[in-house]
Amino acid sequence: MNNRYCIIMAGGIGSRFWPLSKNNYPKQFLDILGTGKSFIRSTFERFLPVVPAENFLVVTNAAYKQLVLEHLPELHPEQVLCEPMRRNTAPCIAYANYRILSVCPEASIVVTPADHLVTNEGEFQRVIRTGMEFVEQPSHRNALLTIGIKPSRPETGYGYIRRHVAEDTTGEIFEVEAFKEKPDLATAKAYLADGNYLWNSGIFIWSLPGIQNAYRQYLPDMVNLFEKGRYLFNTPEEQDFINGMFPQCENISIDYGVMEHSQERYTIPADFGWSDIGTWGSLYEHARHDDCQNAVSGHAVLEGTHRTVVNIEEGYEAVVQGLDHYLVALRDRSLLVCRLDDEQNIKHWIERL
Amino acid sequence: MNNRYCIIMAGGIGSRFWPLSKNNYPKQFLDILGTGKSFIRSTFERFLPVVPAENFLVVTNAAYKQLVLEHLPELHPEQVLCEPMRRNTAPCIAYANYRILSVCPEASIVVTPADHLVTNEGEFQRVIRTGMEFVEQPSHRNALLTIGIKPSRPETGYGYIRRHVAEDTTGEIFEVEAFKEKPDLATAKAYLADGNYLWNSGIFIWSLPGIQNAYRQYLPDMVNLFEKGRYLFNTPEEQDFINGMFPQCENISIDYGVMEHSQERYTIPADFGWSDIGTWGSLYEHARHDDCQNAVSGHAVLEGTHRTVVNIEEGYEAVVQGLDHYLVALRDRSLLVCRLDDEQNIKHWIERL
Fold first, then answer.
1. What residues contact A228, with CB distance under 8 A and at least 6 apart?
2. CB A331 within 8 A of CB A320
3. Which among B312, B322, B349 has the least Cβ separation from residue A338?
4. Can you list the residues of chain A whose pLDDT is less than 50?
5. CB contacts < 8 Å between A and B, how many?
6. Is the CB of residue A225 less than 8 Å from the CB of residue A110?
7. What per-residue confidence (pLDDT) applies to A61?
8. CA A301/CA A283 separation, integer angstroms
C-alpha cells in the first residue's frame, strides 16, 4: 500500500470557464458545481482511500503553490512540485516520476487531472485499485493503463480509446487497439454504436519502472535532461535544476509522447459518473436544475429564462430575464453573457477585450 | 430678469434605470447618455441663460442635498430645499413657491424635472423665454402654461395635452382643452393623426401670484398648511416647519391637483429635441449606436449582438454575445439582463431580489 503514489496534475490555467477561472484562479481551485469543495479538493479526497496522503504529489505552476496548500492542507509543501512554465503533460509527469524514483523506485502510480467530476466514488476507488493491482503484477511491469469511460452519448469533446475486441484475461482489463482524436459527430455516433470505444479519461495507472522504460524508449531526449539531475531530486537543488532544464523539455502530451507508441497499453472500461466538466455546457449538464432547467448559483432572480447557466459572484445580485440556453457569469469584475452553444469561442472573445 | 425663477424638481428615486440608478444615486445624478454631464447639471445649464444662478431652487430629498451641491456648485446651500419625504409634485412646488414668495412676490417661475434630455438648447431657451414673457403680461397673470412637445410617434409612455383648435392670439401659445392620461397604442395613434395633441413635458411656467391663486382655489387644505408658516420661510425655522407639516400634505401631483381644474391653461407646442429618458428604451433611442445598432458604454466586447444596450460600470469588463434587443447593465454590484421590450417589469423583478 505504501508503494502507491498519486500524481495530481494541477497546472491548468483554463480560460474556458472565463470569467470564473482566470490566470490567478484557475478551474481546479473553484467549486463550480457548488458541492462545497473545489475540484482539486474533491480529487484528493477521491484518491485518499487508495493512496496515503504522504504519497500524493501535486504538479502545478509556482504561482499556485500556496493555493494548492490551502486546498490540501494535509500535504507537506514539498509534495507540491512547481513547474517554471507549462510544458504539457509529458514533462509534468516525468518530473513527478523522478521525484518518486528518489524515494520509492518500485512505486505504482496513478496520474490524474485535478479538475474532473466523479459521482460514484466507491466504484471509482474499486476501479483504481483494480488497475493498481494489475500493474503491480510482475508480468504487467510495463503495462500502461488508461481508465476508459463507457460512453453514454456521441460526445465530440473527448478523445476515444478503441479497446481490443478479444476477451481479456482479467474479465475487466482490455488491451488498447488505438487512441483516437476528438471525433466529429458522425464518427462519434459510429464509435458509440460500435460498442468497443471508450472515452479517454486522462487518468493513467502504471508502475514506475514501466513508465520509466516507456519514456526511455519514446522520449529519450527528455529522459536525458532529467537524468542529468537524477540525484538532485528531493534535495535543496531540485527546484533550481528543474527551473533550468524544464524550458528545454519538449512541449508534448503523455498521449502523443508515450501512449501512442506503447506496445503494452491497457484500459479498464469504467462507469463511475465521470465528466471532465471541460465546458460550461458540461457544467450545465451536471448542475442542479430549477423548474425551468436553469442552473443557478449566486443571488439571482430569473424571469422567463430557461436552460440557462447563471453564475453570480458572492456579494453581487442579478436579474436575468428572457434568455433560453444562455450563460450569464459574473466574477472578478468580468461579465460574460453568451449562448451556451457558442461557448467554444469564449477564448476569442476574451482576446478582443 | 431678476424676477425670473427656476424650480428644479430633483427628488426622484427612480428604479426604472436599475441597476444604474438606485436609492443612493438616482437618475438625475447620472450621466446615462455619456454626455459628460449628469441630467441635473444639464438641466441647470439649459436654464442658466434664462434664469440667474441665484434664482434657482432645487427641491430634493435631504439625503441628496450634498449630491445636488456637488453637481451644481454654483448654488448656495440654501437654494437646495429638502423635503422630508416624497409627496409628489404639488407639495414640492408649493414649498418652492412659498420660499420665493418670501423674497419676490411678483416672480415668474419655470418648473422643471431634473432628468430630461433636450438636444436643441437654443430653441429650448427661446420657448422658455416666450412662455415667461407670456405669463409676465398683466392680462395673463393667472395663466398656467405647460410646455407641450410636438409628437413624432404614437408614444404610450407620456401624458398628452389637447390644445384648442382655435387660433391663438400670439401665434405660438394655445389654450389647453384637456390633459390626457397615458393612452393605449390605438389612442396614441389617433392623437398623432389628429394633430392637436402634444406630449406633456412636465415643464410649467406661471407667475407666482397666478399659481398661488390656483393653489388657493384647488388645493385650499395644502395652502392652509403652508400659510401657517408663511413667515418662517427664509428663516432658521423653515426646515423644522417643513419637516412638521410636509407629512400632512396631500400626496398629489400638480397635474391632478391644479392643472386638471384650472380655467386658464395654456400650452406652447414646442420642438426642441426633448425626451424624458424615462426608460432604457428611450435611452437606447437617444444613445450613439454602433454598426449593429447597439448602444454600448463601458469596456465591453459584443459578438453577434444587435439593438442592445450594454452599460458596464468602470473597472469592469464584459463579453456579450448572441443577443438581439436586450439590455445588459452592470452597476453597483448589480446585474440586469433583460429584453428591452420587457423593461417595464424591472420594478417587479427587483422586488423579488
1. A241, A245
2. no
3. B322
4. none
5. 100
6. no
7. 93
8. 20
| Contact by Cβ (8 Å): A313, A331 | yes
Reading the block at residue A345, the C-alpha cell is 469561442
pTM (two decimals): 0.73
Give the type of residue at A2: N
- Tell me if ipTM is over 0.90: no
Q: Give all strands (DSSP E) within A126-229, no chain letters.
A: 144-149, 160-163, 174-180, 197-207
Q: What is the dihedral of CA A135, A140, A145, A149, to 10 degrees?
A: -90
Residues 6+ apart with CB under 8 A from B130: B170, B172, B173, B268
Is there a contact between A269 and A150 (Cβ–Cβ < 8 Å)? yes
Q: Which residues of A touch B (CB under 8 A)?
A: 18, 299, 301, 303-304, 312, 315-323, 326, 328, 330, 333-339, 342, 345-346, 349-350, 352-353
Q: Cβ distance A114 to A129 under 8 Å?
A: no
pLDDT for A270: 95
- Nearest Cα to Cα of residue A197 among A189, A186, A209, A185: A189
| Nearest residue to B327 via CA among B335, B338, B318, B316 | B338
Using the Cα atoms of residue A293, residue A296, residue A299 and residue A305 in order, give the sign of their dihedral: negative
- The CA distance from A298 to A329, in Å, is 10
Task: For chain A, give the number of residues.
Answer: 353
Q: What is the pLDDT of residue A13?
A: 74
CA pair distance A22, A11, nearest whole angstrom: 13
Q: Are A89 and A254 in contact (CB under 8 A)?
A: yes
Terminal Cα-to-Cα distance of chain B (whole angstroms): 50
Please tell me which residue of chain A has the smallest CA distance to B321: A338
pLDDT tens-digit profile of B71-97?
Answer: 999 999 999 999 999 899 999 999 999
Which of A18, A335, A350 comes nearest B316 by C-beta?
Answer: A335
Return the amino acid letter for A58: V
Q: DSSP labels for B135-196?
A: HHSGGGTT-EEEEEE--SS--SSS-EEEEPSSPPSSSS-EEEEEEEPPP-HHHHHHHHHHS-
Cα separation, B178 vs A8, in Å, equals 78
Nearest to B337 among A317, A337, A350 (CB): A337
In angstroms, what CA-CA distances link A41 with A260, A272, A314, B255, B291?
Answer: 31, 18, 21, 65, 47
Dist CA B346 CA B337 (whole Å): 10
- B6 phi and psi, to 5 degrees? -130, 125
Give B324's contacts in chain A (Cβ within 8 Å). Answer: none
What is the rounded CA–CA span in Å between residue B146 and residue B113? 13
Q: In chain A, helix, strand, coil percent, each to 5?
A: 35, 25, 35
Compare all CA atoms of chain A with the CA of B302 and give the residue at the minimum distance. A349
Write out the three cell numbers for A205. 495507472
> Which residues, in sequence order, are bridge partners of residue A270?
A149
Which backbone phi and psi does A136 adopt, to 5 degrees?
-85, -10
Query: Is residue B25 within 8 Å of residue B71, measured between CB atoms?
Result: no
